[in-house]
Amino acid sequence: MSWLSRIFGKKESSGAVAKQRLQMVLIHDRSDISPGLLEQIKDDIIEVIARHLTIDPESVVVNLAQSSRESRLVAEIPLQLNGRRQKSSVDSDSE
Amino acid sequence: MSGKVITITSGKGGVGKTTVTANLASALAMMGKKVVAIDADIGLRNLDVIMGLENRIVYDLVDVVEGRCRLRQAMIKDKRLPELYLIPAAQTRDKTAVSPSDMIVVCDQLRQEMDYIVIDSPAGIERGFRNAVAPADQVIIVTNPEVSAVRDADRIVGLIEAEEKGPAKLLINRLKPGLVARGEMLSVEDVLDILMIDLIGVIPEDESILIAGNQGMPVVLSSANGTSAGQAFRNVAQRLEGQDVPFLDLTPKSGLLNRLSSWLNKQS
Question: Predicted ipTM?
Answer without folding.
Answer: 0.83
